[in-house]
Amino acid sequence: MRYIIILMLSAICFSACQPEELPAPKHEQSAALVNDAEMGGQYEYQVFYSLRQNAVISKNLKTDWDIAFENGDDGFHIILNSAKFMAAFNTHSVQIQAVTDTAGFGMGLAYDKSDGDLDSTAIGDWRSEKPVYLINRGSDVDAHAIGYVKLQINAVDADGYDLSFQNLSGGPVNTVHIDKQAGHVYTYFSFDNNGQTVTIAPPDDQWDLCFTQFTVKIPIPYLVTGVLLNPYQTGAAMDSTVSFDKIDLAYAQQKTLSDSEDVIGYDWKTYDFDAGSYTVDPNMNYIIQTQDGAFYKLHFIDFYNSQGIKGYPKWEFNQL
């Protein structure tokens, strides 16, 4: 009996000495930060930005490139620079010298979809037919037409692409090999100077958002100014049901995110034709998950710089 009492007293003492279970610490989101992108009054720049670093990683004139080639061993897609309002027309000819004019172009031209769907590009799957495409190179920053190029992609493998191109107005047929680049979704190319690869987007793991012009169909093709997502493992969703201040990590984690490149897009601002100016809607909140798994909330607060010049989007954001 004495032994049982000692055991009971020991158990009570041991229980009383155990620390109480503590609740999980509350997740504290970062303080709100503000930044902007200097696209320029003519929207002449493309600006690549990192949320994690809160910094512009790179910036280029939108006219620095024409087309981009999908990397990866199985990559074969080719996209147009829609910031220049570019379009393509499949001539169904397989002889580049046989294409001499723009006949039929107006009825058959195509544009890339702004959501980045590679199954809906203007060039499409060229591999079986290998046709000549007539490429409208779009416009420069002053809205002057750049001209037309005839393009034929001859081959692709795990290492790169072989292509030929010629200005519609004449000149030599240029034959070029494009090496695929590891660590980038696309390799970028300009038809200028007899053709050359150019450095545009930073490595995939260094940026999240690209501030740029791009082409949409609403319902006719139209050039807009806004934001495109990094196509590499980045998702986002728009939410206007709660205020920016109320969005926390738990709320963000239950949202269904989209990997469409234009999910942020351009309609966070509207144009007042009477006033001749843009107005930003701060109630359009964006939840973004970056490729490292982090969640952010972001909303826009201005589209003008301190001198009143458009083309300088400003946003507020937090890491959740």
Structural features, described:
The chain contains 3 helices and 20 strands. By secondary structure, the chain is mainly beta. It folds into 2 domains: 146 residues, no CATH class; 133 residues, no CATH class. 8% of the residues lie in helices and 38% in strands. The chain is globular. The strands form 5 sheets. Strands 1-20-19-18-15 form a 5-stranded antiparallel β-sheet. The longest helix has 16 residues.
Q: Quickly count the domains.
A: 2
Largest sheet: 5 strands, antiparallel
Helix content: under 10%
Sum up the overall morphology in one term: globular
Strand content: 35-45%
Distance between the termini: 59 Å
Strand order of the largest sheet: 1-20-19-18-15
- The residue ranges in which pLDDT falls below 50 over 5 or more consecutive positions are 1-25
| Total beta strands | 20
pLDDT averaged over residues: 92
How much is the radius of gyration in Å? 26 Å
What is the overall number of helices? 3
SSE topology sketch:
Blueprint: H1 2-17, E1 33-36, E2 45-50, E3 55-61, E4 67-70, E5 78-80, E6 87-90, H2 105-108, E7 132-136, E8 148-156, E9 160-167, E10 174-179, E11 186-190, E12 196-198, E13 209-217, E14 221-229, E15 235-239, H3 249-253, E16 269-272, E17 277-280, E18 285-289, E19 295-304, E20 310-319
Antiparallel strand pairs: 1-20, 2-3, 2-13, 4-5, 4-11, 6-7, 7-8, 8-9, 9-10, 11-12, 13-14, 15-18, 16-17, 18-19, 19-20
